[in-house]
Amino acid sequence: MIIEDFLNYLRFERNRSDLTVRNYERSLRHFESYFKNRESHLLWESVDSDIIRDWVESMMDKGDMASTVNNCLCAVRSFFRFALARGFVNIDPAHNVKGPKKQKPLPHFVREADMDRLIDLPQMWGDSYAELRARTLIILFYETGIRLAELIGLDDKDVDFVSHQLKVTGKRNKQRIVPFGDELAEVLRNYMAERDQQPLKLDTALILDNKGRRMTRRQVETIVKNSLSRTTTMKKRSPHVLRHSFATAMLNNGAGLESVRRLLGHESVATTEIYTHTTFEQLKKVYENAHPRA
Question: How buried is residue 207: exposed, middle or buried, by Cβ count under 10 Å (0-12/13-18/19+)?
């Protein structure tokens, strides 16, 4: 019951996305299962800090990544803050529990030459509507840097062909304007014209599945993964890799960090700074390959 109250609080008072709520619920159910299996009489009200620390250690022992463990711990911390404020518990046992330190890996991105080859070579794509849609998805991600959820949420009305702008709804329903160029404008017009000739159009969404409905995350992820496999052998081939590729290409070609931050919809420039490390790593490789005494 307490968990349901917390999830409703996230949905209706904090206006968190369905995906965020599901992730929080999964973490809370995982922790609840852990402490119930450990001591069946335990309740949320009787959980202490040691049990939470043991849970964190158990996840690390299983080989879970530090980022995964910290996300789970974040859900439990938020839950206990809520429970304490509402009087469901008398103390917050998660307050002083620290998560594992996580390394910041460099973001994966597709090289500009590989992206150019994928987008520009006709032999990379077939003539079907599905192929046209796949190419549109790739170019839309790569030329705007928007998130997967943001792309899925786009409606026709969010595309301004006069000003060449997208109205994007990001995390916590924050909206921003993202510009796009002539190439994407032409690609979108061609896609929409072909889409509107299909038998079904049951949704206002910009990108539709084969049944005329808004595409799901999994459908888009599958299309992106299959499309990127045509030009790269890298293991990660996701929409987020295309977001990384957008940011890296922008910085490599002279864009300022603050401009890229605004385009990506980051709250802080500190989040965007990780891409400067990516471009510096590229610079080091160029130096090592080119300088005779490197």
Answer: buried
